[in-house]
Amino acid sequence: MPRPLAPLASPDDTEAQFYEALQQGDIDKLMAVWADDEDVVCIHPGGPRLVGLSAIRAQFAALFAHGSIQAQPERVRRMHAHDSAVHSVIEQVRVMTEDGPRSVLVVATNVYVKTALGWRMVCHHASPGSPHEPTEAGEAPTTLH
Amino acid sequence: MPRPLAPLASPDDTEAQFYEALQQGDIDKLMAVWADDEDVVCIHPGGPRLVGLSAIRAQFAALFAHGSIQAQPERVRRMHAHDSAVHSVIEQVRVMTEDGPRSVLVVATNVYVKTALGWRMVCHHASPGSPHEPTEAGEAPTTLH
């Protein structure tokens, strides 16, 4: 598998590469952000829990067969610990409907862990958002301890 | 706020107290598992993203006004780092329908962080599961590094 293009030096770097890979439909770039661990977990909106790199790769490959995924992360809430980070994002996902293109909201939890190979994703849990996600003040990262 | 009854000495302890509190409809016990952080995140199935302890407490209190929540965690997948843990669980949730009680599946991602006050929950993301969640082999925890 190709090495990641970026060094994945921070959770933000890794998250940026994840969404770039979705938008480009680039399966190798996408898989390069994941930790090499058999228990990594991915849940697509409305989909079953996928465990392990093989299952995750197969599902993304199936999705990319229909085109790239125009998901734009917004309103990121960050919680950083020493060797892990949890990002909660609202994704604006552009989808094609009978009435033309429109955006739907998806709520995603992305968890990153610091490894010898940089910050890697260990969990992506995405589910349909409410039509009107409430807005909250403050987007600054916090350190728990 | 009352102190937690248990020392929350491990992510499993904290998770056990979380689900006990749901099953007992005990709001103080439930809130005692959360980290004291303004950016903690909770997402109920189909609901909006809730950020911060006040919003999370208000929503659970509203749910408990209708009774406790009979959610039973199963098939837990654990990923542990030094000071954080991600648990992916399939919840069997007992709900009342016009045809009587039945169980629905919910997929939940629970993230815990080690603090001076023990392991605390920083994220609970729950979304409707597929009717037939695939089964996977292996439930042992892994250490990423």
Poorly predicted runs of 5 or more residues of chain A: 137-142
Q: How does CATH name the architecture of chain A?
A: Roll
What about the largest sheet of chain A?
Answer: 7 strands, mixed
Q: Please name the CATH topology of chain A.
A: Nuclear Transport Factor 2, Chain: A
Whole-number radius of gyration of chain A?
15 Å
Assembly level: homodimer
Give the largest interface. A-B, 47 and 47 residues
Structure description:
2 copies of one chain form a homodimer. Chain A has helices at 11-24, 27-31, 53-64, and strands at 41-43, 49-51, 70-80, 84-97, 100-115, 118-128, 142-143. By secondary structure, chain A is of the alpha/beta class. The first copy, chain A, has a single domain, classed as Nuclear Transport Factor 2, Chain: A (Roll), CATH 3.10.450.50. A 7-stranded mixed beta sheet of chain A has the order 2-1-6-5-4-3-7. The radius of gyration of chain A is 15 Å and the shape is globular. Chain A starts with 10 loop residues before the first helix and ends with a strand. The model of chain A is unreliable at 137-142 (pLDDT under 50). Chains A and B meet through strand 3, strand 4, strand 5 and strand 6 of A and strand 3, strand 4, strand 5 and strand 6 of B.
